[in-house]
Amino acid sequence: MVTYFSEIISGLWSLVLGLSVTFVEFIRPNVTVQYPYEKLEMPERFRGHIQLIGDEEGRPNCIVCMMCQRACPSGCISLSGKKEEGQKKKTLNSYILDFTTCSLCGSCVESCNFNALEYSKEYNLASTRKEDFIIDLLKRLEEQNS
Amino acid sequence: MELTLLNVVIAVTIAIGFAALNAAYLVWAERRGAGRIQNRPGPNINGPLGLLQPPLDGIKLMAKQLIIPGGADKALFIAAPVLAMAPAIVSFVTLPFSDTIIAHNLNIGVLAIFAFASLGGISLLFAGWSSRNKYAVMSSVRAVSQAIAYEIPMLVTVITVVLITGTMNLMEIVEAQKGGIWNWYFFPFTSGLYNPLMTMSFLIFFICALAETNRAPFDLGEAESELVAGFHTEYGSMGFGLFFMGEYANIVIGSCLTTLLFLGGWDAPLPVLSFIPGVVWFLIKIYLIIATIIWIRWTFPRTTIYGLLNLSWKILIPLSLFNLLLTAGLLKVV
Predict the structure, then answer these.
(1) Of the residues B77, B141, B168, B263, which has the fewest C-beta atoms closer than 10 A?
(2) Across the interface, do A22 and B41 touch by the CB < 8 Å criterion?
(3) Is the ipTM of this complex over 0.90?
């Protein structure tokens, strides 16, 4: 008989405790981000697909040494460049990343000795067409500069 | 009020309008409340604070096709949602909102409301049985056993109140509680009665009202995780809409009854505050109870069917019977 009543009392008390927990949560501020209206800043070390780094004048730092192309295990980087008249170094004239086969391993960034490659903060990468993932990084750099 | 045709039409229109508006905006309140409890905003895109969400949901439901599953019992299948909604609206006829706002003052108001409320269980049985769906049948079996188990303690607590007031007229029950919060029947040692257990009776009635309206934590009828959606698994379009509206209208009726029987109806909590019109007090009280019901839904997980029936037969029925006997004794002695 005593356990019968003590169980009822302790049960009721646990219900009150549960209600107090949800009440505290009720008056706390929201933790969600309203995605299309607000966006989160990506963290410092977020690894999106690669992009080229430009110098002060907006030209790529890349000297077309081909180390990244050789380091890539899936062969998704293809770049070409040529020597302009009267210049010592080669200049880059195309840098195509085939993101469909990229596994974001980062070997290209590691292998680059000229501070020419970095990870982008891009994460909105959904598309219905495969061609959207063959990315012209030189064009992307120009768009970033403008 | 006289029973002319015009009066009846106006009363029915107001009742349907009140029930439908409440159903629509309680869904909104429920979703916003759930959002706040889970630290997210809830529906906030359509209109300011998401206030256009309910009419848009209504339009979506009305635009959908009503599909009757093959092998279903057509007549019962179509009758069930109507039977869920109609008694809820009829019950508003005899619910007084203040000492002047009432459609028709019945001498047996409490009895009439409980008679209509018990039709709700039958509508669930119809829906589950006629759907030709195993989950739906399981759900209606549960809903009916739950309805039977919880109607007993509920009616016993109502008899306790009727015993004190000596009337089944809701207006007179409220009149008997006039004069401030210490006269309301949820208050222990109510003046003139000195019964210490009335708070317990109030809690029993409130728990039973939750169970009768199939609300969480007693929503075994539509247990999403086990029975898909229970009795309304096969319903789409406005069939589902009517069940939904019926559920929310029943919540409003349950909280109106709790207010009328235990919280003094339209009586101000302190006699000083009685310059505020009674209907305002009544609405404040019922919406506080509805807010509590929503709060409870998003706090507690669903009970098991055994836990549910044990709670009713082992705890609620003995305690409510005990309070009935105590009240009867006190009425004789005091």
Answers:
(1) B141
(2) no
(3) no
